[in-house]
């Protein structure tokens, strides 16, 4: 038997009917779905590589679209956070600075992952046939298996706390 009391209490603090919240959830779900579908389609068909004239140009264009979608997602997330109820006990300096620290660690993981992988390594170059010389094992990949995902999650968690 499942105790749903904690979940019911959580939903007391989240307005799931708020339009901004719904748009944020949809944008959060849409982004990885979109880029994975497009990348797998490219891997099977090579249509984007042909349209753009090379796999590198196609990968850079997809990367630009992903970055644009991430900006939209971040905006939607920010707007949703502004309209959600606040936990009164958490509105203090300790929470703000904890959120800032978590955000900083997340940013460190995301930026160092990008620097280790490069643009095509970060933005699905392998689906375009752009392979790295060898597996990246330096920081932050020697700390976490998926530092870009964990870093992004930490950024949004930190942002939420702030």
TrEMBL record:
It is found in: Endoplasmic reticulum membrane. It is a multi-pass membrane protein. It comes from the Eukaryota. It catalyses: 1,2-di-(9Z-octadecenoyl)-sn-glycero-3-phospho-N,N-dimethylethanolamine + S-adenosyl-L-methionine = 1,2-di-(9Z-octadecenoyl)-sn-glycero-3-phosphocholine + S-adenosyl-L-homocysteine + H(+); 1-hexadecanoyl-2-(4Z,7Z,10Z,13Z,16Z,19Z-docosahexaenoyl)-sn-glycero-3-phospho-N-methylethanolamine + S-adenosyl-L-methionine = 1-hexadecanoyl-2-(4Z,7Z,10Z,13Z,16Z,19Z-docosahexaenoyl)-sn-glycero-3-phospho-N,N-dimethylethanolamine + S-adenosyl-L-homocysteine + H(+); 1,2-di-(9Z,12Z,15Z-octadecatrienoyl)-sn-glycero-3-phosphoethanolamine + S-adenosyl-L-methionine = 1,2-di-(9Z,12Z,15Z-octadecatrienoyl)-sn-glycero-3-phospho-N-methylethanolamine + S-adenosyl-L-homocysteine + H(+); 1,2-di-(9Z,12Z-octadecadienoyl)-sn-glycero-3-phospho-N-methylethanolamine + S-adenosyl-L-methionine = 1,2-di-(9Z,12Z-octadecadienoyl)-sn-glycero-3-phospho-N,N-dimethylethanolamine + S-adenosyl-L-homocysteine + H(+). One of its GO terms (molecular function) is phosphatidylethanolamine N-methyltransferase activity. Pathway: Lipid metabolism; Phospholipid metabolism; phosphatidylcholine biosynthesis. One of its GO terms (biological process) is methylation. Keywords: Endoplasmic reticulum, Lipid biosynthesis, Lipid metabolism, Membrane, Methyltransferase, Mitochondrion, Phospholipid biosynthesis, Phospholipid metabolism, S-adenosyl-L-methionine, Transferase, Transmembrane, Transmembrane helix. Its EC number is 2.1.1.17, 2.1.1.71. The chain crosses the membrane at residues 20-39, 51-75, 95-125. One of its GO terms (cellular component) is endoplasmic reticulum membrane. HAMAP family: PLMT (MF_03216). This is Phosphatidylethanolamine N-methyltransferase. It comes from Smithornis capensis.
